[in-house]
Description:
Elements (H helix, E strand, L loop, with lengths): L6 E2 L6 E2 L3 E3 L15 H12 L4 E8 L19 H13 L3 E7 L7 H4 L4 E2 L14 E2 L2 H21 L3 E6 L4 H6 L14 H4 L1 H14 L4 E6 L11 H15 L4 E5 L17 H7 L7 E4 L5 H9 L4 E4 L2 H4 L3 H4 L14 H6 L4 H7 L8
Parallel strand pairs: 3-4, 3-12, 4-5, 5-8, 6-7, 8-9, 9-10, 10-11, 11-12
Antiparallel strand pairs: 1-2
Helix pairs in contact: 1-2, 2-4, 4-7
The structure holds flavin mononucleotide (FMN).
Flavin mononucleotide binds next to strand 4.
Amino acid sequence: MSANESLSFPLSLKRSHNRFVLAPMTNTQSLESGELSEDEAAWLERRAQGGFGIVMTCAARVSAFGQGWPGQLAVDRDEFLPGLTRLAERLSAAGALSIVQIHHGGFRSPTDLIGGVPYSTFSSEPTKSVPYGARQMSEHDIEAVTQDFIEAAVRVKKAGFDGVELHGAHGYLLAQFLDPSVNQLTNRWGGSFQNRTRIFRDVITGIRAACGQSFMIGVRFSPEDNQPDSNGAHLAETLDFMNLMHQCSVDFLHVSLWDWRKSPVSKVHGDGTLLDILCCYKSPTCPLIAAGKIAENADVDAVINAGADMVAIGKMAIANPDWPRRFGDSSFHLKYPPYSESYVKEQSVGESFVTYLRRWEGFFE
Length: 365
Ligand SMILES: Cc1cc2nc3c(=O)[nH]c(=O)nc-3n(C[C@H](O)[C@H](O)[C@H](O)COP(=O)(O)O)c2cc1C
């Protein structure tokens, strides 16, 4: 199997022309209001032109109260539709499937951005790990945010995108529901696995009912990221989660590994890598995308050979927008950090994203 081969998604019947996904990457290039800027559109369009079969946007907020950082893309109001529509058109014209990652920060939304104490599945005074404090969500809050996710997806569909990805990874609101160490709800959304996954099921069911079968719904998740343990409970729950998502008929799952070579904390499932184990549990009707330090042609081959259906490229896509188009071409050579700022800017990376990337030691010369 080569990463140049196309992939058809069995439920939506959409087709990616190869196995490369632009990983969702926050680039802080949106306008202060959350409206798409030309810099952000150009950044994504350039990767579509470079051959990424699927182009994902950064995490985009589904409500003002869930904003995670300044310059975040917003999909929470109809006034953003004109910009979103132009982006969807440009990505489609360049041949990519277009996916908006939909996101709510939960307790990680900064007070000064959202104008109040953020909410989550628990309450807390400000601490080192809960910097703004947290107010426990009421049933009304949970039902309202469920609706926000669904309405955001409807807007994304209206704009002409091929689908959405729920950001269920990295400890943001959806992951806060999932994590038993953080979810202290005692109602229908807390306690059992069934209850902690209810918001995923309700959001997916709602989007499917409103957007139909041909609109793609994917879910990004972090295996073992929250409170990894050595007895295998968290990995076992991750596998249950994958199974549940298969039952919900999502179009794809997207595992955020940070490093595709990573081993599980627990050895309950044998000596394989996390990726090996997850690939054993994937469903033939639900392609699995894997992300994390895929930085060389050999990594792409190894991840596909391990059984992943697609590779998501993050940091390497910043300086190598043409990697997918040139994959397999021996005259093409990947560029590695440190990069000069001028070179990165030439790859359709705007000033604001360059500023954000400066926090990565070793990225720039
Ligand atoms: C600048 C930057 C911004 C990111 N923003 C997001 C995001 O908005 N949503 C998300 O799910 N992951 C985000 N990630 C994680 C990436 O999608 C990816 O999983 C991670 O960088 C590992 O892949 P890589 O080693 O190829 O970079 C971000 C990563 C980087 C470097």
